[in-house]
Write a structure and sequence with these properties.
single chain, alpha/beta, Rossmann fold, Alpha-Beta Plaits, four-stranded antiparallel beta sheet, binds adenosine-5'-triphosphate, binds magnesium ion
């Protein structure tokens, strides 16, 4: 048993690429960043961890990548315990960090080749691999230039290439597209999709961009305040909301609202949230008038009504009562 981790080591329950069981981290000072995380990510799939600032995504990734020791619970990468077998885990994974970490003194090519050397690759091997990855991330031409003169998007691509130098079987990307323009974001995702198609790479990605998660992830987990609040395929999560979502904001006797919609045949989901409620219906255009009338009947004073096709933003809103980004529409 590792003295740093009071949970006795036990074998994983699945053959998944990533498995976490009751994984938790409380930082010194008492911040419970991850309360209890259970996660199973099958080999060859893309899993997106979503959540607002401070939800615990980076902390979860840090534990899974052996950089932070869990306070309790366990996790395995390809069946290897992240605490007991940390060195082997590190050899089988690739990581990109939320903050850019590049040695400014090195050229793009050197960044990659040094990384390969650190992991014991022969000169030939690291040259060949660097060539391949520079090509993949469209940096061949920029390779002789210092990384410090790269644009934000090029730096992100170089970091992705670096994470792939050691041919990892599991790739962790913490906000890989943060701050990039839409074109830059698309490029990163194109590379990841290509890799997934051409290998059995497993990817765990954290992102604030719901549309990316919706399009690319096989499974999405929404974290809030250190816990997974909901998990599933984007389609299932969105379907569960109903065909259209009507969001009603205002003030009034909110308890009186629920019974008004309890047995209505067109209502597919109903969620009371701070300052109003969210209602999934078969067709917003046909039901809007009735929804408003029922709310008014219940003494609810309506300030704003909006209609949206359900997306992951609405799923997030349903489960947390907040928008993923402060002020952003759900
Ligand atoms: N090294 C640390 N020491 C103390 N508290 C920390 C440390 N790192 C993170 N925290 C706290 O833990 C909580 C979770 O932070 P974390 O970075 O894991 O969240 P996140 O979901 O990645 O957020 P973001 O979307 O902003 O990247 C926050 O309250 C944060 O302030
Ligand atoms: Mg983070």
């Amino acid at each position: 048993m590792n003295p740093m981790n009071p949970t006795p080591a036990s074998p994983p329950r699945t053959k998944a690429a990533i498995e976490a069981r009751s994984l938790a981290k409380t930082y010194p000072g008492g911040v419970e960043a991850v309360a209890s995380l259970d996660l199973v990510v099958p080999r060859g799939s893309i899993y997106a961890l979503l959540g607002p600032n401070g939800a615990g995504k980076t902390t979860a990734v840090s534990m899974l990548t052996t950089l932070t020791t869990p306070t309790s619970g366990q996790a395995w990468i390809n069946g290897l315990n992240v605490v007991e077998d940390a060195a082997s885990v590190r050899r089988s994974i690739g990581v990109t960090f939320q903050e850019t970490v590049l040695d400014d003194a090195l050229t793009g090519r050197q960044v990659l080749e040094f990384h390969g050397r650190l992991y014991g690759q022969s000169l030939r091997e690291r040259r060949r691999r660097a060539d391949e990855l520079l090509e993949l991330t469209e940096l061949t031409e920029a390779a002789p230039r210092k990384a410090k003169v790269y644009s934000g998007g090029m730096k992100r691509r170089l970091e992705l290439a670096r994470a792939l130098m050691t041919v990892p079987s599991v790739l962790f990307l913490d906000e890989p597209t943060l701050g990039l323009d839409p074109q830059g974001r698309t490029r990163i995702w194109d590379y990841v999709s290509t890799l997934r198609r051409t290998s059995d790479l497993t990817v765990l990605v954290t992102t604030h961009y719901l549309d990316e998660a919706q399009q690319l992830a096989d499974c999405v987990g929404i974290m809030d305040a250190g816990r997974l609040v909901v998990e599933g395929s984007p389609d299932d999560l969105i379907d569960a909301l109903g065909s259209d979502t009507i969001r009603v904001r205002g003030q009034g006797v909110e308890e009186a609202i629920d019974p008004r919609f309890a047995d209505v045949e067109y209502v597919e989901s109903f969620t009371r949230v701070d300052g109003g409620f969210l209602i999934g219906v078969d067709s917003a255009s046909r039901r809007l008038t009735d929804v408003i009338a029922r709310a008014a009947d219940a003494g609810f004073s309506i300030e704003d009504v909006s209609v949206a096709k359900p997306n992951l933003g609405a799923v997030f809103f349903q489960h947390t009562g907040r928008s993923l980004r402060e002020g952003a529409p759900a």
